[in-house]
Each structure stands twice: as structure tokens, then as C-alpha cells.
Amino acid sequence: MMINRRTFLRTSLGAAPLVTFGASRLTRLAFAADSAAAADRDLLVSIFLRGGCDGLNFVAPVDDRDYIAARPPEMRVPEKGDHAGLALPNGFAGADWRVHKEAAPLHELYLGGDLAIVHACGLVNASRSHFDAQDMMERGIADQKNLGLDTGWLARVLAAIPAPGLLPGVAPAGTLPVSMLGTDRACGIADLRDFAYWGDPGERAVLHSLQNLASPLTTPSQRTLALIEAIHKKLPHDKDGNVPKYQPGKGVKYPEHDFSDALQTVAWLAKLDVGLQVAAVDYGDWDTHTGQDYRFAEQVRNLAGPLAAFYRDLSDRTQRVTIVVMSEFGRRLKANESGGTDHGHGNVMLVLGKAIRGGRLHGAWPGLGNDQLDQHADLAITTDYRQVLAEVLEKRLKCGVGQIFPGWSAKGALGLT
To answer: In this structure, are residues 12 and 224 in contact, taking their beta carbons and an 8 Å threshold?
Structure first.
């Protein structure tokens, strides 16, 4: 974001400041041992597919009779032909499991043992509302009566782990998502090249002079300016003082897409050693009520290519990077009359990392027979989404989950790590 004087004062002093670090942390921002506290923990990247990704058009038992009967060929993962799905070894017994052809870059990671797939999982609450389902998942709950919870699950993660670095949490967007609601350790940064204050030296001097004033109106602006200046010093600059475009690692090329841009912001911050511990990334437009046959293929392609590039880009850090991909709900088993699918229930989650037991499907498959479906319509949920997140948090971030997911306790283990 390019910040002029008016925008800076409005966003830093308003009700929703650009960044909300606690006042006691201000003097430590530029002097913290940014990477020391994170050395024994993974960087957690949470990717939310907003709109309700159709998990049964992504990863499916292609020879299942109920699956074939419920959908036309163009809305299934086919077992043969030009668009045949890619075979997944170590799937659930009794079926030919495959992933969508456009997910080839992720399939490669699955075969290499870095990608795990959890099927028939999600939010156990039966809500089919985008707003309610997303809100509950981002708050780490499954009951609408707890929607008043004033923090998101990633905000509670940041509060639970030692994170004294310059920027423990980030969302590569203009605002923080609900999952980071209530944290004082995260910032929304859409583009690092524009994360600067475009004011003259006199204006900067005035802002700095306010630092010693004990006023609730001056503290947010000081925090914002301190963060901008500290990150600015870490960025490369050309001979004219401008920040050049991000350069990925050797041999890595991100596809042209907004999702790629967001992931590159996270990768850049990870490489700057600013103490980054948690990132929340959104990828939307998965609400395929109509035209799913062509829309979904494009969505998968624009997920798989950038995500695989991001993973390769952090190849020297993948021993301490774990990526979790989720969506608010799946979609109905049966296709609708508009060439799409309506809001459903059970779904698929992806977990990616060097320390993950990848190359297999995890969880328990309930089946797609009429009596096996939730409300005789949707894929039933056998794994609570919090179980997936809990295993990652406990093993890779060394974080107890009792305070992260209030009122919930694990029932068994998936063995993801």
C-alpha cells in the first residue's frame, strides 16, 4: 500500500490501524532477534479457499458407482480420456483415487511425499452459509453460539508462541482476515514495494517527535512508522532508491495470477528474516453454482501452479514451513441443473511440508451411498477441521491447542506428522 500523509494518519490513528503492535513492543521492533525465536518452529501458512471448493471435483474415487451416477463426466475427476485424473497411491482402500488433472504440480509433491490429503473433513456444524461457516472456521469454533468470540484462531496462535521478531504475522492483503482478529502481532501488507510512507522529511520528523507523547492517538502512528521504516531497511534498493520486483529462488517461476502475488509477498518476508511465524492467504471465487466444468479447472490450475512455485521458492526453508489449505465447506454430491454444484458439507484439506507424512490420504472415508451421505445429500464429515490444524500446531509449531480451540478436544490422531 502506498501511504501518503492523509492516508497514514487516517489508517494509523483510526479504529482499524494499519498495524496494531502493543505499545510495549514499539521500542523493540527494529532491534529484536528476528529469527532466533522462530528457529525451532515452522512458518505456518494458512490458505483459505473462499466460496466453498468442490472437494469431490478435486480429489475423488473415480470408479465409485455412486460418484459416477451423481455427476456428468465434466464435473467429475475422470479415470480415462484426455482429462483423466492423476492417480494417488495410498488412497482409501477399495477405490481408484485421483486428483484433478490441473493439479499436476501438487500431484508431483504428493508423489514426492511432501503433500498429504485429508478427505471427508471440515466444519462439523451443518451451516451452508458462506458467512457463518467462514466465520466459525476462522475463529476456530464449530458452534454459532460462540460467534461472539473476539479473536481468531491464528491470533491465538500468535499469542501462544514466543514471537518477539519484527513481524510475526502477515496477511498479504489490505486488511487482516477474521482468523487474525484481535492480534497485536500481525499486519496486512498487499505489496512490500508499496509498503512505505510517501511523505517529506519534515512530516517524518513531526511524526517521530510524537513518539515521546503518552497519547493513545500518537501510539498507533508511531508503531506504523516504525514497522514501515524497519522493513524498508531490510529490502533491496536500486541506484534510484526504489525497491525492485521480488526475485524468486533459482529456477522458480510463479504463474501470472493474483494468488501468486500474495504468495510472493509471504515468501519475500520469510526470506527477509523478520521473524515471520504465521501467514494467512486468501484465494476466492470457488462458489461454482454454474459453469463448473470450465471454471473449476481454471481455479485448480491457479491454485496448484502458484502453490507449488511458492513451496519450491522456500526450498531452503521447507524443513520449517508447513502449509494448510482449507475451504468453508464442500459441495453437493449431485450436480444441479445449472451445470454446477450447490453448498455441501464434507471437503478436502491439503497439508504440505517436509515434515508431513505425505504421499497418502488421511482420515476415514464414509462412502457416497445414499445412506452414507450427510442428510442424504452431501459428503459426511469424519474428521473435524480442527484435528488437522491441531496436529500441525502441536508438532510443527510446538503449540498447545487447548487455548487455540476452546471447548474442543482431539478424538484420536490422523498421523500427519
So the answer is: yes
CB 350 within 8 A of CB 325: yes
338 backbone dihedrals φ, ψ, rounded to 5°: -110, 20
Beta pairing partners, 99: 59, 86
Q: Which three cell numbers stand for residue 159?
A: 499469542
Percent of the chain scoring above 90 in pLDDT: 74
Distances (CA, A) of 129 to 55, 71, 99, 252, 330: 17, 23, 27, 38, 12
Res 53 pLDDT > 90: yes
Among 26, 19, 7, 6, which residue's Cα sits nearest to residue 213? 26
What pLDDT is stored for residue 224 in this prediction? 74
Helix 5-13 vs helix 219-234: crossing angle, to nearest 10: 120
What's the mean pLDDT in 277-302?
97
pLDDT tens digits, one per residue of 75-133 = 999 999 999 999 999 999 999 999 999 999 999 999 999 999 999 999 999 899 999 99
* Distance linking the first and last C-alpha atoms of the chain: 38
Beta bridge partners of 187: 19, 170
Amino acid at 100: H
What was the pLDDT predicted at 211? 60
Higher local confidence (pLDDT), 391 or 213: 391
| 412: confidence class by pLDDT, cuts 50, 70, 90 | confident
Which structural domains are found in the chain, ordered by start?
A: 2-396 (3.40.720)
Radius of gyration of the chain (CA): 22
